[in-house]
Amino acid sequence: MSRFAISILSSLFLISCSHTPNRYPAGEIKKPYLKNRPDRYAYLQYASILEDVDIPSRNILRGPQREDAFENNSMVNCHFSKAGKHKSGATPKFDCKIKKDKFKVKFTPRNPDEKLTDLMYKDYEKEIYAEVAATRLMWALGFYADTVYPVRVLCKDCPTNPVLGFQENESPQSIYWGESSIERKLDGREMELEKIPGWTWQEMNNLVAGAHQKQMSQSIVNAYFKAQSFDKKKFNTEWNALKLLAAFLKHNDNKADNQRMMCFETVEFQGKTICSQPVIYIQDIGSSFGGGGKIPNRGGKASLKDWASKPVFKGYDAEKQLCQAALTASFRAQSYLGWIFRGGLQDPYINEEGRLLLSHKLDALTDEQIEQIFTVARMDHLKEVKADGSYVTIADWVRVFKEKRDEVRKGCR
């Protein structure tokens, strides 16, 4: 293993309501009122999970049409901006920029003068591929998601190790990182309380079950939403569909800081700026299309063998009269972050309405679209070896996807 590869590895461990809602471009939405936990609970309880989209018309290869989009597999020439050592997650990353446009790059560590090393195929690099596939699938189905572009990156004014940054007496250079990914965040304004990002699956389950109503009764945010029409049954159905999708993808690194709450629109209500359209979504879904498990970087990302070996459902709970999906939350998803328990999603219970909703959406995907999911993600570039010694193909990924779609359609009984 090269010195550079070892360096990378070491760095990885070291709404009055009469006002019209205001919708702004990303970064320009007024800061919504969010002062305490009851406000936060209210926003989560009334958040949007799904958009109503025409699934068969979604071009998964092209992805969401944004002004700041990147072409698939294009060469991105950017200037190093910030080292990735302070960012969470095991996948090597750094900030790069083109003029004033700054973005996060996840890359495959390699020495440009050598052939690809085995390090490229370690699970934390597989996130580059898995996250593209997972976000394109979620977008196609109507679930909110960031947009992740499969690209190649030439980093200018770059340190040898962009995770650690410049070392003493090191000169900047241009380095080609090859297959990488660039993330564009969902438009809107992120909402967090006490510097704790995201939300937990456990607290959302509790809210769906009716928890924290007394605390929320004093919240101005709750007062705003009480005056609006809200279909609680629809929300519960979409929530269960999202849980099942997480199990379908084997999204095991589902800690709180991998989820987000965003604001799309604001209104003025009783002298306060209220977010009238809060949205919740999975923000980091790179630990997917694998076998799940307690440790995300051991077969938990972009591994057809591991993904194929794990069922969608664990079984049927006769007492609860609910299906139970099969999903093991990572160790990190079951720990604490400040005052909030990261509340990972572990073998979630799924109501029938949620199962049917996700099944309907998966069935709406065309064969061409399913193939596009894995083609745009370059899953065949991983060179995963099958039992017969041949490499895993896009057709293999499509076959297993359809098998798992059939599992969702049939249910757990």
Report on the structure:
By secondary structure, this protein is an alpha+beta fold. It has two domains: 15-56 and 188-410, no CATH class; 75-184, no CATH class. It has helices at residues 3-13, 37-45, 123-141, 201-208, 213-216, 220-226, 232-249, 304-309, 352-363, 367-376, 394-410; strands at residues 22-23, 75-82, 93-98, 101-107, 147-158, 173-184, 189-190, 259-263, 265-269, 272-275, 278-282, 313-317, 322-325, 336-337, 340-341, 349-350. The strands form five sheets. A five-stranded mixed β-barrel has the order 2-3-4-6-5. The relative contact order is 0.17. Mean pLDDT is 86; it is low at 1-24 and 111-121.
Search tags:
alpha+beta, 5-stranded mixed beta barrel
Helix amount? 25-40%
- Percent range for β-strand residues: 15-25%
Which strand order do you get reading across the main beta sheet?
2-3-4-6-5
Distance between the termini: 49 Å
Low-pLDDT segments: 1-24, 111-121
Number of strands: 16
Q: Which structural class should the secondary elements be placed in?
A: alpha+beta
- By oligomeric state, this entry counts as single chain
Shape: globular
